[in-house]
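Morning!

This is the sequence you dropped in the shared folder:
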Amino acid sequence: MSSLGYTVSDTLVLAKRSLLRIPRQPDLLVGFTIQPIMFVLLFVYVFGGAISTPGLDYVDFLIPGIIVQSMTFGGFVTALGLSEDLKKGLIDRFRSLPMSRAAVLTGRTLADGATNVVQLVVMLAVGFAVGFRFSTGAPEVIAGIALCLLIGYAFSWVFAFIGLTASSPEAANAYGFTILFPLTFVSSAFVPPESMPDWLQPIAEHNPFTNMVNAVRALFVGTPAGNQIWLAVVWSLAITLGFGFAAVARYRHAVGR
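The structure's back. Tokens below.
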């Protein structure tokens, strides 16, 4: 087998390892199933009546935003897992095995991609249950789903970097939510930026998360796209490359290589 073949094989093995952890620790399911569902129900039935979204029902405005937010946080399992593996010395054991060094990170992020598919199915099912409907054709919907998964994969590398940087799994979890929660809420995910205070509107409008939400909203419900879709793709690729290189560098430092 070629070196590329070994890397792919090792990546799949470690991705499987990450996925097998979830049934054994079902509390991890809460983060990417129950919690997003609670957000949907809270915003639709509690806050929705007080939020004005001209041209759209609030549920059609909300669901694309909350799906993108859920994809963004889908990598928290990677942050917790990498931090725990470092703390327990498992990464050092991997170093002693005849396996690809790249597979440790690529396997984790690949597993996140699989859980993001499950999460996306759950979120769309809940969205349909509360009244969300697609307003575009099948090609746009498929493109929107692909964009959601690309966004989720990009932020998996953010969480990989956080997991390798934090001193413990608890710290990794705290860092991830502290850094990313403001990013997702100061955006167009839950309310139009125009409804925010004047000093906050420019921050929300230039937030990369706003580009991502607007792009998915355009593909799902047909709002004006402008250059939002291309910006969302560019941001996702930039985050993947930037934090991918940062995570690899941090991994080499963590294992002393």
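Headline: The CA atoms of residues 7 and 147 lie 26 Å apart.

More detail when I'm at my desk.
O.
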